[in-house]
Specification:
about 425 residues; about 30% helix; about 25% strand; Rossmann fold; 10 helices
């Protein structure tokens, strides 16, 4: 479970910006849409991120995904030549930041204990790295690193000094320590590997196929009585797709467009007589389903997996190919304590203003990203904006520009230039 995430000097985020899933108790938005994982400590189950095109919404998601990538694959990149770390992507529109370090800080819950991991790095150097946790509600140091100087807390056991000697200037001690079986660090790395799931905006068929295979494999390995399989079918029935069941088998040939597709999916539909009474069923190839249903197969599977296992799912352009009512319904599953029993969280970047309802979301669940005149992104929630009332018409106010985060369209400039060109 994510508590807070801060990013500084990454892509369009020049100054430190902090995103929080901790309720803003000062706003008195009530107790709706809150998760209580630790007694008396409530957290938000979902958040929406709005902003104009190129405002930085996707960059925020890329920052969090970059931190995961650094930790998951660090031990496999140590042979790469210096200066080849692709995660280093500073703010380039300022001479002071173009070659300055990037910093990430993530506060999260693991086994109901709060952890804080911070990382500052350059293209070929780890500048600083630290990990603290709060086993008794008080801060305790696991390790602090500045360059190649390491300090360790009493809680960190094992061959910590040996691993520190083995850690190169461009390697992460957290990843290196877990890889070398320092027991206190292994669960932290597993958190980043297993509890953070990203579904970016899909541009290539291979990216869709990756998630398609993930969901299809889960269904393929499940029995008909498996809880995931049953819930998956119920979800599709509830969304009025007309699909009764799924049949999954391993692919016997490669689809030209999706050559990495490992499974074939058949969807079962009803055959009705003239009176509308079912007389049988028919199986259809998955590719014959609508693009929306194909997207829903992947999205529904990933959301269901997150709800059943716990963890965090982060999605860019959530509304793509989805009806607004389906989008609202899927988000509501994370708000429902009877369904979201494992403390799952959903973070989405979207343009869908139909979701902007004071009845569906608290002010501290709605975030805005906008760029200033220097090209730097600023991130803030509605709880940070003065004058936004609890029961305000969020959609109307957002589209009017009262909340920020909308494009400043210069239609007159285009019209004058276009007319001048046509007149030549």
């Amino acid at each position: 479970m994510i508590l807070e995430f801060s990013v500084e000097n990454f892509r369009s985020f020049r100054e430190r910006q902090t995103f929080s899933m901790i309720p803003d108790e000062g706003r008195h938005d009530g107790t709706e849409h809150l998760l209580e994982i630790i007694a008396k400590h409530k957290r938000l189950p979902a958040a929406l991120i709005y902003g104009a095109n190129a405002s930085g919404k996707s960059n925020f998601i890329k920052a969090l995904q970059s931190l995961q990538s650094l930790l998951m694959f660090d031990n496999f990149k140590w042979k790469s030549p210096p200066g080849s770390r692709p995660e280093y992507n500073p703010f380039l529109f300022n001479v002071e930041t173009a070659n300055a370090p990037t910093t990430y800080t993530l506060d999260f819950l693991l086994n109901k204990i709060r952890y804080t991991y911070s990382l500052t790095f350059l293209r070929a150097q780890i500048v600083a790295e630290s990990l603290f946790f709060y086993p008794q509600g008080r801060e305790a140091k696991l390790f602090v690193r500045k360059g190649q100087v390491f300090e360790f807390g009493d809680y960190l056991k094992g061959q910590r000094h040996v691993v520190a000697e083995l850690t190169r200037p461009d390697q992460l001690f957290l990843a290196k320590g877990a890889y070398n079986n320092i027991s206190q660090l292994i669960p932290v790395i597993k958190y980043f590997e297993e509890s953070l799931l990203f579904k970016p905006l899909e541009e290539k068929p291979s990216e869709y196929t990756y998630y398609y295979n993930m969901v299809a494999e889960r269904l393929f390995n499940a029995s008909k009585d498996d809880e995931f399989f049953r819930n998956f079918k119920l979800l599709f029935k509830s969304l009025d797709t007309g699909i009764l069941d799924f049949k999954v088998k391993e692919s016997t040939f490669r689809n030209f467009e999706r050559e990495d597709q490992e499974f074939d999916v058949l969807t079962e539909h009803s055959i009705l007589n003239g009176l509308g009474v079912q007389e049988g069923t028919i199986n259809l190839e998955f590719e014959s389903e609508s693009k929306g249903t194909q997207q829903l197969f992947v999205l529904g599977g990933l959301l269901l997996q997150t709800l059943m296992q716990g963890g965090v799912i982060v999605i860019d352009e959530f509304e793509r190919s989805l009806h607004p009512l389906i989008s609202s319904y899927l988000i509501s599953l994370f708000h429902d304590p009877n369904i979201n029993r494992k403390g799952a969280q959903l973070i989405i970047a979207t343009h869908d203003t139909n979701l902007l309802s004071s009845n569906a979301f608290r002010r501290d669940q709605i975030w805005i990203v906008e760029k200033d005149q220097t090209g730097a992104s600023e991130l803030f929630s509605l709880a940070d904006v003065n004058g936004i009332l609890k029961d305000a018409p969020y959609e109307k106010w957002y589209l009017s520009g009262r909340m920020g985060g909308i494009p400043a369209i210069q239609s007159l400039d285009f019209q004058l230039n276009f007319e001048a060109h046509e007149a030549q």
